[in-house]
Amino acid sequence: PVALNGNWGFYWNQLLSPDEIKTVPEAYTYFPERWDNTMLNGKKLPAKGFATYSLKILMDPEKQKDLAIQLPDTYCSFQLFLNGKPFAAAGKPGKTKEETVEKWIEQVINLPVTDTVSLVSQVANFRHSKGGPYKPVVIGDAALLQAEKSAEEGFDLLLAGAILMGGLFFIGLFYFEKHDKVILYFSLFCIAYSYRIVGSDNYVLHSLFPNYPWIIGVHLEYFSLFICVVFFMFYTKYLFPEETHTWLIRIEAIMAGTLCIMVIVFPPAIFTQLLNPFLIIMFTVIAHAFYIYIKAYFNKKLGAKYALLSTGILLIIFILINLKYFNVIQPPRFVLFLGYLSFFFCQSLILSYRFAFTLNEAKKQAEMGLKAKNDFLSTMSHEIRTPLNSILGMTNIMLMEKHSEEQKEQLNVLLFSAKNLLLVRVLFRHLLVLFV
Questions:
Q1: How far is CA 365 from CA 65, 98, 354, 355, in A?
Q2: For 327-431, where are the E strands, in sequence order?
């Protein structure tokens, strides 16, 4: 595959049709490059606006077989013309906010066989804090590009499904079995992060549901990111409460909670600028979690080594994601996939080990309580039997002597009561053996 990176013809604040494109463009700019990072005539461009790009590619029809073009998402809508005809679109670019329809979706479309490919791309952004193209357009073998796209979407769907099912399992465990806040916050973290997998980066969710509203998607994309930090903080707090600094957790929770509220209250043009502050909070939370888990490990707390290992994996994942976001490197999809699986597997081990340990302790306590009860009942049964035998024996001896009728009647009542008590004791022991 060949990335079409380089200088493209550039027409700022113009949405031109292929017929209106000049033979020699007014200006050139590097593609892909966000507008807020682009200089034109010595001035930095704003993030909001609209523009047209043009590029002509000379092809060899004899070597051109089954080629396709990979079109990534753009801030925030585009329409592409190929050889003068509409070819692909994501949303609808316009000259005003009202005319523009935003959409994020990645596409792979087959190219016609021709000796020249003339591309004209109209791009518009009025709602995001970033504007313009930021991912390369790629031409390559159609089967290869489609296979790569399918593989990436398959990885995302498999991973999101696994994380979501794990979250639902743990939230069911919390609800039906043991109301442990550690399990609750981890399950909420899983559910929120499962949306991140399909609702950002490759935007698989947008591909599955073409009519998925962009405005809802962008709010959920940032909200799920910010709220995950809140859930992870409280999960760590309740996992190792003795090693946690409550005041620091509260500060981090207030900061992350403020970001969540801003996503709900403000439009995308404002809350999409919060990524850099969020990165500071996120790495502060991870560093704090490292500190907590190291203390818990030295204090020999349950599951501390798995927590320490999983947090190290999470740190590596976030570093790779941020390097990818800033176009420093492009880590392979399977590396991130295995990293995510390793992180959630280690966290699941912690909760499973914690739950099994709690059940084992409860079992031991129940067995100790049962043993104590049996010992008590056995002792009491023996203590009752000894005086009863004496009472029965003495009563029988006294009945063999001469007594008045009234005294005999009283001795018979005593003998009857003692025998009944002895019978009750025997029945009680049988019932105890039966039920225990």
A1: 73, 68, 17, 15
A2: none
